Structure formats: structure tokens, C-alpha cells
Amino acid sequence: MKQPIYLDNNATTPLDPRVLEAMLPYFTEKFGNAASRNHAFGWVAEEGVDYAREQVAKLIGCTEKEIIFTSGATEADNLAIKGVFEMYKEKGNHIITAVTEHKAVLDTCKHLEKNGARVTYLGVKEDGLIDLAELEAAMTAETILVSIMYGNNEIGVIQPVKEIAAIAHKHGALFMTDATQAVGKIPVDVNADGIDLMAFSAHKMYGPKGVGVLYVRRKNPRVKVTAQMDGGGHERGMRSGTLNVPGIVGLGKACELCRLEMESESIRLSALRDKLETTLNKMEESYVNGNTQHRLPHVANISFKYVEGEGLMMAMSDLAVSSGSACTSASLEPSYVLKSLGLSDDLAHSSIRYGLGRFTTEAEIDQAIEVTQKAVNHLRELSPLWEMFKEGIDLSKIEWAEH
Amino acid sequence: MAYSEKVIDHYNNPRNVGTLNKDSKFVGTGLVGAPECGDVMRLQIEVGEDNVITDAKFKTFGCGSAIASSSLATEWLKGKTIDEALSIDNMDIVEELALPPVKIHCSVLAEDAIKSAINDYRVKNGLEAIVLEKSHH
């Protein structure tokens, strides 16, 4: 079978061969436990981890001691939010987040609500950005944490993190950000941005799956989180468990490559993305979702009205993309992120997300454009809604049967 | 999710896509589903002498299984009498297309579309609409 063109880099990225090369020795000859203090095997593994810590720290502008290795961004989100809630509960029980957050944040907050937390879920504007005045108004003396993502996984919009951090700090709260889609793609600097805690993972930036980071600020202020797993007290007591040395080494290498190549790579990717987006947006009744100014360079989310996303993906089997249509899920509910922008259900059902990456070529983008246009036209031929639209029938005036 | 070969076949080569003249008294039109739910089917039948369905056409907005269900329905309808058509059950479609549980609603919608087209034809021709049991979605 011919491999489809991979344009789902927001879901995961392929491992860069240079990352794999760095990792390989740590599976075999350098297999030691980084916590073994009494022999060379342990020392060698620890050296690998220390070097990776430097590589990660350099990418996000922090010190090595502020890096807590985890199994991924989901664990890091859990550790940050639950850990802060438990550590600072004397100070207050109020957390502020946004409705477009990843489930790892939303469901963690929902969990804490059962344990006495009060959570405010901020809505977003039409372009996907939160309203800073609304955040300001939601802050109370009880607010201990503001958790707003850096770049959105579905539409790629970048939140004004600096301004958000300033508002949080003004009211004595900590600022946490899930930066899974942003780190390695755009410059992220924890000091310039005012970030107190930050979660991200290796597999979204050409590193291996199963390893991620929680950045925890040590100075101005010194932030602490309560450990969520008991054990050997690894990672300054915040995350027990034998370190995943090959994974961590891979993460380090991935961070280094992103840091060195980010500038040229983001220019290349945004040019390809813009080509894809402007060409497809020229099609009749197609709509770009989310803010197009404050946005990650590699994401495009487009709705093709009057065709259904899952059916569309089937017609584009040469492309590996994703859709906001949730026709497969039991609820039949389309993407909550797109709906929170105020998109009608039918436009949310009609959306396709293209996630470009380091290995995406211009030839692939040209092919993706052609495949998409052909599929959309084909499905519109089949669509009764398209026919009605063409006849000038107002679809909103029709009484559709609930089902 | 992997689709069955039959779904893929109907999806790639949909049978009887098109539009019949909805104002003709020989034509019955059923429009079911809703855009917000992600699927809308329009199924039309043309009825000749002896209540035999001489032609059937469809257009569907929806996933591959919805398109395949309506395509298959038009294939089955041609040549059947109205009474025979009324006996088409959504589970027949599920079986023929090997639809997974999560896609059963697509077959239900196709059955609804058939019944709704037949009722439209009946009402146009001075017959009473058949009371349909409320299908469970």
C-alpha cells in the first residue's frame, strides 16, 4: 500500500533520525539507571540525562534544575494543576482555565472540582483568543492558578501568554501553560513570558513518545508542586520513578534540533501552510478557522461547507489529516474547540485540520491541495445541501428532523 | 476506523446519484437528518404502473457509511413495489454493508428516507401517509 502524505503533525511527529541516533546507545551499552550512584553504568546514564536537561533548558530559557521529566504532557498537566492545588490550598481554591484547553487540562480541573476546587472556564472570542478583560474580572483573592495553553492543538492560535501571566501575577496567582504545540515551533522563553509552570512533550517535536517535561520555576517565585506519585523521590521529589533515560536523551536532542532550526523552519513551514490555505480558501464556501495573525506556523484548519468532514477524509485517503467532525464518537458531537469559536455544528462537522511538519515537502503540499479540491468537489456533487445552496434555498429556514 | 469493502465500493462508485423532478406526481422525495448532526439524506423514487418503483436517486451529506447506506438503498428500491420497499429494514443494510455499531444510525436514516419518500408519493397521490413508528436513534 502506498503511504499517505502525513499532515497530522499536531497529533504526533515522526522521530527525527538524528534523535534516534542519539538515543540508541542508551538502550544497549549505556543502559544504566541514572539513580545508581555507585558505579559507572549509573554515572554514564546520569551524564546523558544531565546533558538532556541542559538541552531542554536552553530551548525554553530556564535552568536545568527547573526541569521535571515526566511520561508526557498529560502527566505534566496533571502534576502541575493537581500539584499546585494541593500545595497551595491554604491560599485558595480557585483555578482559571479556558474552554479550548486540551482534555488533559480540562479533565484534571473537572477532577479537582470534585475535591473542593472552584474552576472558572473562560470562553474564547470568535478567533479563539481569550478576552483579557474577562480574565481580569474572573481573578479573585482565592485564585491560585491560571492555566491557559500557549498554542491550540486544533486551530493553532497563540494566546497572549505574557499579558495573561501579568494579570495572574498582579493578583498573586501562578501562571501555568500547556505549551505542547508551541515549544520547539516558536520561541518560548519562560522568563520573558512570565511562565511559572509549563508542560510539553517530546513526540510533538520529532522526539520519542512517552517522555515529556514539567517546567517548575525555582526563583521569583519559588514554585512547588505536591508529588502525584509516591516512590524514590526522583526529580527533586516531585516525580518519582526510574528515569526513562533513552527517551530523555531523545527529548534533549529533539530540543537542540528545534532550537537550531526553528528560525528557518518556521519561515519554510508558514510559507507552505499559507500556500495550502490561500489556495483552498479560494474554493467557494470554504472558511479558515481561528485567528490567522497570532498562530503557530504549521497549522491550518479549514471548513468546507456542505460536505461532512469524516466523509471528506475518506475521499482523501491519500492524506493523513484530522477532522473536527466526530461522526465516529457515540455523542455525534463535533469538536468542542471549534464550537467554542461560535462555529455552527455543520461548519464544525465540515472542518479539516492540516498539520505540517519538518518532513513536509512542497510537492506534498501541491498534492494535498489537488486531493482536497477533488474530494470536496466530488462530495459536493453528492451533497443535497450543496444543491439546495446552489438553488438559493436558505438552509436555516428548513425544519430539520431531530435525530 | 476501517471501512468494509462494500462501504468503500459504494463510496467510491455511488449508484444513482442525482435528482428527480420533485414536482412530478410520480416522484416521492424524502429529506431526513440534519446538518448539525452531520448527516442529511435526500432519497427520491419514481413510481410507475402497479406501484413499481422505476427509478431511485439520492444525494447525501455525511460520512462514508451514510453515503453507502443511501446508495445501497436506491439500488434495492429499483424494481420493487411500494409494499416491498416498505419492508426494507435498517438491519438489512447494516448486514449487507457490515456497518459497525457506531454507524447503525446511518442505516436507520436510510430506512427513514425510504419511508419518507414513499409517504411523500402517497400524499401527492391522495393517499394517506403511513404512520411510521418512531425510530430509535
TrEMBL record, chain B:
It holds the Pfam family NifU_N. The keyword Acetylation does not apply. GO terms for biological process: iron-sulfur cluster assembly. GO terms for molecular function: iron ion binding; iron-sulfur cluster binding. Residues 2-125 form the NIF system FeS cluster assembly NifU N-terminal domain. Belongs to the NifU family. This is Iron-sulfur cluster assembly scaffold protein IscU.
